[in-house]
Amino acid sequence: MKVQIEDVTVYFPYDNIYPEQYAYMVELKRALDAKGHCLLEMPTGTGKTIALLSLITSYTLSKPQSPVKLIYCTRTVHEMEKTLAELKLLHNYQVKNLGLAARILAIGLSSRKNLCINQRVLAAENRDSVDAACRKLTASWVRSKAAENSNVRTCEFFENYERAASGALLPPGVYTLQDLREFGKQNGWCPYFLSRHMVQFANVVVYNYQYLLDPKVAGIISKEMQKESVVVFDEAHNIDNVCIEALSVSVRRQTLDGASRNLTRMQQEIERFKATDASRLRAEYNRLVEGLALRGDLPASDSWLANPALPDDILKEAVPGNIRRAEHFLHVLHRLVHYLKGRLDTENVEKESPVSFVASVNSHAGIDQKTLKFCYDRLHSLMLTLEITDTDEFLHIQTICDFATLVGTYARGFSIIIEPFDERMPHIPDPVLQLSCHDASLAIKPVIDRFQSVVITSGTLSPIDLYPRLLNFHPVVSRSFTMSLTRDCICPMVLTRGSDQLPVSTKFDMRSDPGVARNYGKLLVEMVSVVPDGIVCFFVSYSYMDDIINHWNQHDILKEIMQHKLVFIETQDVVETTLALDNYRKACDCGRGAVFFSVARGKVAEGIDFDQHYGRLVIMFGVPFQYTLSKILLARLEYLRDTFQIKEGDFLTFDALRQAAQCVGRVIRSKADYGMMIFADKRYSRHDKRSKLPSWILSHLRDAHLNLSTDMALYIAREFLRKMAQPYDKTGGSGGRKTLLSQEDLEKMGDNILQGMVY
Question: Taking every annotated instance into account, which residue ranges of this chain make up the domain Helicase ATP-binding (predicted)?
Answer without folding.
Answer: 7-285
